[in-house]
Please model this.
Amino acid sequence: MTRSRRERLRAETAREIKTIALKLMAEGGPDAISLRAIAREMGMTAGAVYGYYATRDDLITTLVGEVYTDLVDTVEAARDARPADDAAGRVQAWAGALRTWALANPQGFRLVYGDPVPGYRPPEGGPGAAARARACAGLTALIAAAWPHARAAHGHTSYQWSDFGEELGAHVRAEHPGLPPEAVALALRTWGRMHGLLALELYGHLSPVAFAPGALYRDEMRDLIRSLGLVPPVD
Amino acid sequence: MTRSRRERLRAETAREIKTIALKLMAEGGPDAISLRAIAREMGMTAGAVYGYYATRDDLITTLVGEVYTDLVDTVEAARDARPADDAAGRVQAWAGALRTWALANPQGFRLVYGDPVPGYRPPEGGPGAAARARACAGLTALIAAAWPHARAAHGHTSYQWSDFGEELGAHVRAEHPGLPPEAVALALRTWGRMHGLLALELYGHLSPVAFAPGALYRDEMRDLIRSLGLVPPVD
DNA sequence: GCATTTACTACACGGCGTTCAGTTTCCATA
DNA sequence: TATGGAAACTGAACGCCGTGTAGTAAATGC
Model:
């Protein structure tokens, strides 16, 4: 059962490829991830990498999954550092951790949410989809906690469960019985609201016109929390 | 004064290069813009293009400017189709035109707001900056019209003019005397709010989990308009 | 008519993803 | 422990790419 020496070496090499790829990405952005550069850094030939990843997009897909998972781990941990009954604090913690992570890993943000690479199109399933599902579920949980206060302002729209992905809908109905699809819509809108300013900032569209992006984001998140019927924390 | 035949031909060729570049982009995304492909399409050599644009990034920069300008023209036109005293309608028109344009020109949206191309970094000045300035000014004008209703909810944050770009600040103070910097902050937050869901949708992050992105965007914009102290139009 | 400027070609360089035939290295089994 | 076979890797190639540079053909201005 213990993996053979060959398998261990193989796993180690695959790991090293990913590590170097992430290093190259951190230094030069997602486009700097080239199989040739990775091979060069490892003292190998470009062709050798094909023994581990069938194509460059396969490697990118794996990286997207890992980075996305790291992001979701981070925001979930920040959220769980607040008590479960502090709905506003948990939203704020999630949002704050998201920006902190994004500023610390700008290229990772681009990898996950941008055009990872020239012609890259994310595959349907895969690790990226799992991380995204976790993110959507996490956001919906935040909204579920706030829903008693938010329903007055956001319960009048009309959505059906069929407006959302099979998996997400099933998860929400199992995890939050009685929560209407309107709440999922609000969760996804919340996602967009967190994403907007961050994307503008990280792609350099904000810096020429605004020198205090952190304040903008903080106020936007406060407004979001207020819009959920909650009271924004003072810190 | 009338431009010589040489100059006319030259301008025509430069125009053709841009047109073909936009066609390639519409077909295969911003990364499909390659000087060799353009030259091939024109029956020229790749090197010949260098007579018109010093580098590929120069061409990209020009395209970003043109596409961005087209976008701003579009949203401004939609806004101006509503009466000047219909603040809510003008916000809605702007937002609606933005999404319509983005769905009609998805690759243009990516060109302007994403990583236009592998190692591309937008230059400081240039046509893109001018279009962005127009967009920010337009958004601020929308907020200025709503400010009497919005100030109660959004006037308590603290910003200074130095928190914003020189040019933007000067423009706003000239155009909207008495408008505080908090309104500019609100305008930029509004920009982010419009951008977020759109970016998620156009980069394919929404489609696996939400099948009614238009409804999400509509409701988000309604909420935005309400948050500005205005009454969302019914249409 | 001629000299100059302009537009363009042809070619080269290095980098990229990807493929493939051939070689080396390691492991399990006889 | 020797050997057969699999796995890992090399080296070279193909066709893309951006970008220079030297040379050529044509249009222009005097």
Notes: Chain A touches chain B through 54 residues (CB under 8 Å).
